[in-house]
Amino acid sequence: MATRSVQLVCLLIFSTAIIKTASAKINESFKQEKGIDHAYFVDRSIVQNALSKGAVCLDGSPPAYHLDRGFGHGVRNWIILLSGGAWCRNITDCLNRSKTDLGSSKLMTPFIFLGIFSKSKSENPDFYNWNKVFVRYCDGGGFTGDIESIDPATNLHFRGARIFDAVIEDLLAKGLKDAKNAILSGGSANGYPAVLYCDRFHNLLHKAHRVKCLVDAGYFIHVKNPRLANVFESLFRDVVTLHGSIKVLPKSCTSKMKPELCFFPENIQQDIKTPFFTVMSAFDSYQVDNIIGSNIGECIRARNCTESQNNDFKGLYIYTWVK
Ligand SMILES: *[C@@H]1O[C@H](CO)[C@@H](O)[C@H](O)[C@H]1NC(C)=O
Ligand SMILES: *[C@@H]1O[C@H](CO)[C@@H](O)[C@H](O)[C@H]1NC(C)=O
Ligand SMILES: *[C@@H]1O[C@H](CO)[C@@H](O)[C@H](O)[C@H]1NC(C)=O
Ligand SMILES: *[C@@H]1O[C@H](CO)[C@@H](O)[C@H](O)[C@H]1NC(C)=O
Q: Which first-to-last residue range defines the signal peptide (predicted)?
């Protein structure tokens, strides 16, 4: 019993010390503005050796992530998040993006960790002491691109798939290879690669007891209803073509349908063997407001949708999210 107490006290002191160091980084103005108590900034780590593999951001700079080390009984647990941020579908778009932090690690600043990345045990009881990695998105192609040639006129690089591999390799060397529990997650545009690479990630972790994947808001409206625009199918056609994503799309899918259709997670998820968890709101506010149209977002909020609006919405809900 005495030994236990000593261990517990040591653990408490150890944890407090770590929390203290991090709390020095807390952004006071952020805390006051948003009323969030446990948010803290984490510096970026540049993956220098990715350069030799040509695993680079749109502008040719090396990729980056933000890593906060686990502590206590979380030291061998890892949660990795592929951050979202739409896609670039043509040269103009990608050139523009290459001058932002979504296309160049030169422009990335420290990133704020909160919510599922919080260090607070009360706020984040499941993951507070895990190793947490926020992978920055800088390829514009959802971590799927792999084109060798570079047009000297634009100097744009389409290498997202290589970035995923280079980042995971770097993390394996930093302790991920000894992970006991690990989660590969992705949000929005990068929910898709969290499904696509889920089994590959699992297979790299030989010592792990549990490996799972998490897709957060990663499903995009795809309906046959001709009255509603097929926004994402045409977008994904452009993305897959521009970024040369076909190489990484599962053959089990591309043998059955067009490559752009294999960019929808619902068309590849049935072949994933590793357990994965989906978080998707049927009322995804971005898509309800910007894609569905017919003022559905507005009538949902005002609770006065007409029967035909309700039918559009139900049709979408059934076609898209519940397969
Ligand atoms: C703190 O957060 C605010 C946003 O709430 C941001 O404008 C500011 O640049 C941040 N400060 C630092 C030092 O990162
Ligand atoms: C590139 O894509 C954007 C939308 O993402 C569009 O507004 C623009 O017209 C496109 N440019 C070209 C040259 O196709
Ligand atoms: C270029 O990016 C900026 C944001 O950095 C955006 O406001 C602007 O609309 C973009 N222009 C084009 C042509 O996409
Ligand atoms: C629904 O309510 C909103 C807000 O009160 C109003 O602007 C809109 O005109 C209403 N629509 C219908 C069809 O009644």
A: 1-24
Mean pLDDT of all residues in 135-143? 98
CA atoms of 246 and 254, how far apart (whole Å): 8
* 8 Å CB contact between 107 and 100: yes
pLDDT tens-place string over residues 192-229: 999 999 999 999 999 999 999 999 999 988 876 666 66
Residue 14: CB atoms within 10 A of its CB come to 12
Alpha-carbon distance 116 to 79, whole Å?
9
The answer to whether residue 61 scores a pLDDT higher than 80 is yes
Which ligand sits nearest to residue 298's alpha carbon?
4
Helices (H), the chain: 2-23, 28-34, 91-97, 160-173, 191-196, 198-204, 231-243, 251-254, 285-287, 296-302, 307-316
Considering every ligand atom shown, identify the ligand nearest to the alpha carbon of residue 89 and give its number.
2
Residues 6+ positions from 164 with CB-CB distance below 8 Å? 82, 143, 193, 197
CB 146 within 8 A of CB 161: yes
- The preferred substitution site among 26, 30, 41 for testing ligand 1, maximizing ligand atoms within 8 Å of CB, is 30
User: How far is the centre of ligand 4, averaged over its atoms, from the C-alpha of 312 (Å)?
Assistant: 17
From 10-24, 50-64, 96-110, the region with the lowest mean pLDDT: 10-24
